[in-house]
Amino acid sequence: MKTLAPRSSFALVVAAALAGFATAAGAAEIEFAFHASELSNPEALYERMAERAEAACATNGRRPIWVQKADEACAADLLDDFVAGAASPTLTALHDRSVRDRLAELR
């Protein structure tokens, strides 16, 4: 039993750290503003949204892989929120295609 205690403690610390990184952007309200005229070029608007999400969730410096993955998950969630908030069917379709393409690359 003594050998399991350090491992389970470590797992809890890692899980708490991951949760902290994944919600770092959620701790402060991250806003994204755009002009309605930008909807005429959804690709450019989507790119700007993605860049804002990545910047809001990025941790600086050299990072272990689990921190990089937490940053990526944070940015993906934030981008989902930005696209949903825009309430644009064209932007939503572009986002859905982007997500499907990324998932296909993982296979």
Summarize the structure.
The protein is 74% helix and 0% strand. It is mainly alpha-helical.
Which helices and strands appear, and what pairs or packs with what?
Elements: H1 4-22, H2 24-27, H3 42-57, H4 65-86, H5 89-106
Protein traits:
disordered N terminus; mainly alpha; single chain; 107 residues; globular
Structure commentary:
- By secondary structure, this protein is mainly α.
- It is built from 5 helices and no strands.
- The protein starts with a helix and ends with a helix.
- Residues 1-26 have low confidence and may be disordered.
Shape summary: globular
* Count of DSSP-assigned helices: 5
Between the first and last Cα atoms, what is the distance in angstroms?
39 Å
Helix content: over 70%
Please write the string of helix (H) and strand (E) elements. Answer: HHHHH
Q: Provide the β-strand percentage band.
A: under 5%
Counting DSSP E segments of at least 2 residues, the number of strands comes to 0
Q: Low-confidence spans: pLDDT under 50, at least 5 residues?
A: 1-26
What is the structural class?
Answer: mainly alpha
Task: Outline the biggest β-sheet.
Answer: none
Please give the radius of gyration in angstroms: 17 Å
User: Taking all residues together, what is the mean pLDDT?
Assistant: 78
